[in-house]
């Protein structure tokens, strides 16, 4: 929580500077909900992986498979979470600060050359309470596997490794 709150303060200051606002945003309640949602996503992902492992593994091999999975988590998961949460929290806090400052439109901005799939969203403008993509949407780009959107996407990231941003529209 202290790391997330500190990051939120820095993001708030940058977001306010971007739009030239001098309000003092209240991000405490938002960040409490954000952290609870993060915990839920993390637990849900872990549980989903463990259930899939149980379905796909022979009973006599399950203990070894669990040991291997936890070793993989210890090695890879911190970096994956950091990569995703930097983008997720940045954009979620930016959206909330913009909302509190009275911004009514958001624009999706793709990091140049980052992802052909995200290029389809680049420049898209939505209302601050609207989604950029919804559950069931399909985002396609030539030569790439499509993204099957599984949740309401109010801000980036839309996929693993996404580095897109939102700005005031």
What string, H for helix and E for strand, traces the elements in order?
Answer: HHHEHEEEE
**Percentage of residues assigned to helices:** 40-55%
Runs with pLDDT <50, length 5+? none
Largest sheet, spatial ordering of strands: 2-1-5
Structural class: mainly alpha
- What does the largest sheet look like? 3 strands, antiparallel
Q: Using DSSP, what is the number of strands?
A: 5
Mean pLDDT: 92
Taken as a percent bin, the fraction of beta residues is 5-15%
Tally the helices: what do you get? 4
End-to-end distance, in Å? 30 Å
Overall 3D form: globular
- Any idea what the radius of gyration is? 18 Å
What does this molecule look like?
With 169 residues, the protein is mostly helical. Helix content is 54%, strand content 9%. The protein is built from four helices and five strands; from the N terminus they run H-H-H-E-H-E-E-E-E. The chain has helices at 2-19, 28-56, 62-101, 116-119; strands spanning 105-109, 125-127, 138-139, 147-148, 165-168. The protein has a three-stranded antiparallel sheet. The protein has a two-stranded antiparallel sheet with strand order 3-4. Strand 3 (138-139) and strand 4 (147-148) form a beta hairpin. Helix 1 (2-19) packs parallel to helix 3 (62-101) and helix 2 (28-56) packs antiparallel against helix 3 (62-101). The longest helix has 40 residues, at 62-101. The two termini are 30 Å apart. The model has no long low-confidence stretch (mean pLDDT 92).
């Amino acid at each position: 929580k202290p790391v997330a709150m500190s990051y939120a303060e820095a993001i708030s200051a940058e977001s306010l500077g971007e739009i030239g606002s001098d309000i003092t945003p209240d991000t405490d309640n938002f960040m409490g909900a954000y952290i609870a949602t993060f915990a839920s996503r993390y637990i849900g992902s872990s549980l989903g992986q463990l259930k899939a492992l149980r379905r796909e593994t022979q009973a006599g091999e399950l203990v070894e498979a669990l040991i291997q999975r936890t070793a993989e988590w210890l090695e890879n998961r911190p970096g994956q979470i950091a990569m995703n949460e930097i983008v997720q929290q940045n954009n979620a806090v930016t959206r909330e600060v913009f909302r509190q400052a009275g911004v009514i439109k958001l624009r999706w901005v793709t990091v140049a050359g980052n992802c052909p799939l995200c290029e389809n969203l680049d420049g898209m403008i939505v209302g601050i309470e609207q989604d950029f993509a919804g559950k069931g949407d399909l985002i396609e780009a030539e030569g790439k596997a499509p993204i099957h959107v599984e949740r309401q996407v109010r801000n980036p990231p839309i996929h693993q490794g996404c580095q897109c941003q939102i700005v005031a529209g």
